[in-house]
Amino acid sequence: MAMQVNATRMVLLSLKKRLNIAKRGHKLLKQKQDELLRVIQKTISLLASMRKEVEEELIKALRQFFLAQAYQDKDIFEGSFLLLDTDIELSMEKEKVMNVPLPKYQKSLKGEIVSYGFAMTSPTLDVALTSLMKVFERLIEMAQLEKRITLLAKEMDKTRRRVNALEYILIPEIESTVREINMKLEEREREKNSRLMIIKDVIRG
Architecture of 9-193 per CATH? Predict the structure, then answer.
């Protein structure tokens, strides 16, 4: 559908410039959309692989906890956790990927994971706690990847809408308007030439 504009050469020149800008913008946005899709697919693949590894690591850590519980007195086992003196702080920075601010989580640990006495506890408990901390670190990485996928997907959806608006609405409208103005200008030129020919014939006659 053509725009409602005056059919003048000035408007035609302005529309042609606007059309070139729209086409360049469409090309850049299409490239961004393709790159976003590539990054999302890569991140999803990495997350799926990490999820499988974390599940296996978590199962191993839980088995070690069950073994540690089986090898010592229940009260001593539960009392060991009352002596834990560990603080875990999680901070977030942001890094831009294709102008999209993405989270980057940082973990800081204060104190020791194993802070109880060793005399009455099983070495298996030490191994279980250390394994669980490694799983926790991987879970943070997974949370970071999941959040990045969500944000990238939102940006890709926004980019896709812009690409479609340019491809199916704005560019066709401008092209249609340019054609219509060209036709009107050519028609005016023909009418002008016809009038000139008539005037010449009248003068000659």
Answer: Orthogonal Bundle (1.10)
